[in-house]
Design brief:
Blueprint lengths: L1 H23 L14 H16 L5 E8 L2 E12 L4 E2 L6 E2 L4 H14 L20 E5 L5 E5 L6 H5 L13 H6 L14 H8 L17 H13 L3 H13 L20 E4 L2 E4 L11 H4 L12 E2 L1 H12 L3 E2 L2 E2 L3 H7 L15 E3 L4 E3 L2 H4 L8 E5 L3 E6 L4 E6 L10 H10 L5
Antiparallel strand pairs: 1-2, 1-16, 2-3, 4-9, 5-6, 7-8, 10-11, 12-13, 13-14, 14-15, 15-16
Helix pairs in contact: 2-13, 3-7, 3-8
Length: 425
């Protein structure tokens, strides 16, 4: 019995040390075998990613895999800029679009931890324009009527995308178009985000609050909420509370001009091959994040970042809210964020999956039908980037590319398969 007790005690102590190290140490690239992965098998991932470049399907990208708090795989491939023959680098900067949402969602939870709000509060308590909202209801003749919302929109509705607010493409899209609020892009706007959100509040939404998963401007509204409640511009609040403590020194809403050479070029997938986006361009162009008005901070899609910066953020989540000795949020907040909150609402994009407070959540691995683990959480961005965190395997994966639209590619699925096939314990 004494021997068994000592074995159990040693196991617990080892688990504590591993957890402490992952929470308290900087990211270090180590031999894959030291964290239970195979260097040889990870080479299959490298060869496969390079094939997409060789076949003219991707310009390039960066992939990072961390396990047990250390980096097991971190490689760039292809070109940052094809026309000028600039290689992709591990520290290349990418437009991460909707991957901004997770960071802003954590920002909201910080305010709850500071006692400044509750996520069950109506958003109208802080943004008066949202005290009363409306919904567009279809009519039999093909038109629509506008009715009052059945209840107030809560902060939790916005975090879970169940507020009924889309990207202006519902049956009342004519009104959203007239208001010049459609699509997810704000970087080219002269108008500060507070003014845009205030105008948005008067437009009819696509569904009643709490009745449907509708992906849209929810996190942009949360960004405006953070500004009002904290008294700080969104960029500064997130810098002080998340980016600076985590050492995310290459994450910005707008790029310092001396870093413009590191910004990966955006390409589009066409029948004739990859097409470079126009410069300076609008939604997918090259110049706006460097030479644009720099007035609108989009909580839903505005950030630029590197693979390592974003992996730091995800490792903080995996560690239960802390990284490198800095606590960002509590472990119970992480737990709440990474459980599905959809209740009777169906997540429409993937079987076996729900949605938490800023992340999709795997609830049934068999129904989803791809490699991973129950409890895994993640999301992606419009420029064909993706990420996930697998607590069961103590795993963080970040994959950045700059391709919009991306037609017919299976690189995300192969990335997942090839990361998991490289696990050896």
């Amino acid at each position: 019995m004494k021997k068994i007790y000592l074995i159990k005690l040693s196991t617990l102590f080892l688990a504590f040390i591993l957890h402490f190290n992952s929470a308290a140490q900087e990211f270090v690239k180590v031999e894959a075998e030291k964290v239970g992965m195979s260097t040889e098998r990870l080479q299959i991932l490298s060869h496969t990613l390079q094939e997409y470049v060789d076949n003219g399907e991707l310009s390039g990208g960066v992939a990072l895999v961390a396990r047990r708090g250390q980096i097991a795989y971190f490689q760039s491939f292809g070109r940052n800029d094809i026309e000028n023959d600039v290689p992709m680098q591990e520290n290349s900067i990418f437009r991460i679009a909707s991957q901004t949402k997770a960071i802003v969602s954590v920002g909201v939870m910080i305010l709850q931890e500071e006692g400044k709000l509750l996520i069950t509060d109506p958003i109208g308590n802080y943004l008066p324009a949202f005290k009363e909202t409306t919904v567009a209801i279809p009519k039999e003749d093909g038109g629509y009527e506008i009715v009052k919302a059945n209840r107030s929109i809560t902060i939790r509705d916005l975090l879970t995308h169940t507020a009924g607010i889309g990207y202006g493409g519902g049956i009342a899209s004519d009104l959203w178009k007239e208001a010049e609020i459609q699509g997810w892009y704000f970087a080219d706007r002269e108008e500060p985000i507070q003014a845009t959100i205030a105008r948005m509040a008067s437009l009819p939404n696509e569904a009643q609050p709490g009745e449907k998963f509708v992906y849209g401007y929810n996190t942009d509204i949360l960004g405006a909420l953070i500004e009002v409640v904290s008294g700080e511009p969104l960029n500064r609040f997130l810098e002080m509370h998340i980016l600076e403590p985590l050492g995310m020194s290459d994450t910005y809403f707008y790029l310092p001009k001396n870093e413009s050479d590191r910004l990966a070029v955006v390409y589009s997938s066409t029948e004739g091959g990859l097409l470079r986006a126009p410069d300076p361009g609008g939604m997918v162009g090259q110049g706006v994040y460097v030479n644009g008005p720099r007035k609108s901070f989009s909580g839903g899609a505005g950030y630029l970042s590197t693979a390592e910066d974003y992996a730091r953020f995800l490792q903080m989540m995996l560690n239960g809210g802390s990284f490198n000795g800095k606590r960002i949020i509590s472990s119970k907040t992480v737990e709440l964020m990474t459980l599905s909150h959809l209740e009777e609402v169906t997540f429409p994009w993937a079987k076996g999956t729900g949605f938490g407070l800023g992340f999709s959540i795997v609830e049934d691995l068999g129904l989803r039908g791809t490699m991973g683990s129950k409890g895994e959480y993640g999301w992606g961005g419009a420029y064909h980037s993706t990420y996930w965190v697998d607590p069961e395997e103590d795993l963080v994966v970040v994959y950045f590319t700059q391709l919009i639209p991306a037609h017919g590619l299976d690189d995300h699925a192969k990335l997942r398969a090839l990361v998991y096939q490289a696990l050896i314990d």
